[in-house]
Amino acid sequence: MLLEKAPWYAHIANYLVIGKVPSEWKAQDRKHFFTKIHAYYWEEPFLFKYCAYQIIRKCVPEEEQQGILSHCHENACEGHFASQKTAMKVLQSGFTWPSLFKDSHIMCRSCDRCQKLGKLTKRNQMPMNPILIVDLFDVWGIDFMGPFPMSFGNSYILVGVDYVSKWVEAIPCKHNDDRVVLKFLKENIFSRFGVPKAIISDGGTHFCNKPFEALLAKYGVKHKVATPYHPQTSGQVELANREIKNILMKVVITSRKDCMPPPVEVEYKAWWAIKRLNMDLIRDGEKRCLDLNEMEELRNDAYINSKVAKQRMKK
Questions:
Q1: Domain Integrase catalytic: where (predicted)?
Q2: Any residues with CB less than 8 A from the CB of 21 and at least 6 apart, and which?
Q3: For the chain, where are the alpha helices, taking DSSP H only?
């Protein structure tokens, strides 16, 4: 005689119908169970759940999950999208279960057509490089951008980038000389993030001069000069320059005064910049709703992993 396996929501349904939980549960299991039970309700013969934004979805047993995923991924109208898009289509169809995002990821990775026709990511295309062990704000790259059309008396932008956290510091300036660089290092780098171990720059006269070298020698900072005509040596700051240039091209319209305040404020989501950004609020809300649904699954996985780790420590 074959015994039918109980669905994953059996304990939830039993509690909602008869008000009982398994007697072998410990206090921690009961506490975890009661923190999430309020999101479910039973309507014979189905269990429903209040998901993010109070959207009601049907809880699906194990034997139906694979068919729903296959339909939302491989159907003629679906298009073999990635795991996030497939999970979103399942949620939009009105279904949910605890391991939805994980199952969607596994299915997309095991899909034969997706593996044959999919493109390699940049991470897999590029060779692996050794990672240098440095701390936050230990290595900075600095460079000038410009000259630009003058705006509020400023023609240049001095950019500094931390190589570990990718944090960007940028200021507008009138000239690209050593006095601007020294002031930038003292006020924007040393006093805020501490003295770094090394600074990478190009071989321009504003970086290779006696006052600059004297300041670095005073604080024990190494100065590394990038190879001429090889911007990849200081690639991180060159990447930041490109991003800031792209932001300027989008923000500055007709008047040169549109360039101020400093363009780096776009990175901090300043209101004057958000008003000019091409942002779809509807799609942003849908992405946030999807992330909230995934966060609950990640929280449950973290609880299970923590429980397993504690059991191993007891042994």
A1: 126-302
A2: 11, 14, 15, 30, 33
A3: 10-18, 27-36, 62-74, 83-92, 100-110, 112-117, 122-125, 178-184, 191-193, 210-219, 235-251, 271-274, 281-314
Which residue, 245, 279, 243, 238, is CA-closest to 259?
245
SS3 for 44? coil
Report in angstroms the alpha-carbon separations of 172 from 15, 78, 112, 156, 251.
64, 49, 52, 6, 16
Closest to 91 (Cα-Cα) out of 53, 120, 118 = 53
DSSP string, 219-248: HT-EEEEPPTT-GGGGHHHHHHHHHHHHHH
Could you tell me which residues are beta bridge partners of residue 225?
A: 201
How many Å apart are CA 210 and CA 224, to the nearest integer? 15
A 10 A CB-CB count for 177 gives 15
pLDDT at 162 over 70: yes
DSSP structural state of residue 158: E
**204 compared with 244, residue with greater pLDDT:** 204
With contact defined as beta carbons under 8 Å apart, do 184 and 207 qualify? no
Q: Is the dihedral of CA 31, 35, 40, 41 positive or negative?
A: positive
- Contact 47/40 with Cβ under 8 angstroms? yes
Residue-wise pLDDT for 76-123, tens only, equals 666 788 888 899 999 999 999 999 999 999 998 888 888 777 776 666
Dist CA 189 CA 199 (whole Å) = 11
Q: In this predicted model, what pLDDT tens digit does every residue of 56-82 receive, in sequence order? A: 999 999 999 999 999 988 876 667 888
Mean pLDDT in residue range 6-13: 89
What percent of the chain stands above pLDDT 90?
Answer: 27
CA distance 26 to 9: 18
Question: Which of 225, 231, 248, 238 is closest to 172 using CA atoms?
Answer: 248
For residue 206, the model assigns a pLDDT of 87
Domain locations in the chain as residue ranges: 139-274
